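Aggregate trends can hide what the representation actually does to any particular protein. In the encoding step, the backbone of a single protein was reduced to a row of integers, each denoting a local shape. The record that follows shows the chain in one-letter code together with its fold in token form.

***
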Amino acid sequence: MDRKLLRLLQADASLSVAELAERVGASKSACWRRIQKLEGSGVICQRVTLLDPARVGLGLTVFITLRTSQHNETWARQFRELVHDMEGILEVYRLGGQLDYLIKAVVADMPDYDRLYQQLISADFSDVSASFVMEEIKATTQLPL
């Protein structure tokens, strides 16, 4: 039942408890208790509304790769604080391998990217590279359950 609920909620979090209960074959109260338990345990992290970036004036998606020679906790903490507060940055990953960080950002246009870039380079990187999305082929937030 949990997997069915999670699949349904990932596809449409606006479904009512009554609709969810009907689709998973449970009572409304049992369904609501399961949802509350999944939220309480952290399986359901949050419920959000997804927006189309282009329709809100953010038509350029960019993936930024970063390398740094600063591999210490002080620098890492400052970097986390910097990117956490930067508008337009959607995701940041610390990587193993040749690259240290990967950032996904959305911006309005190239001048807006340059604004973001100027903020990022204050973190003292040894290399910054960007790739600009020409076509989104697949994007989903749904985990395979």
Summary: The first strand starts at residue 60 and ends at 67.
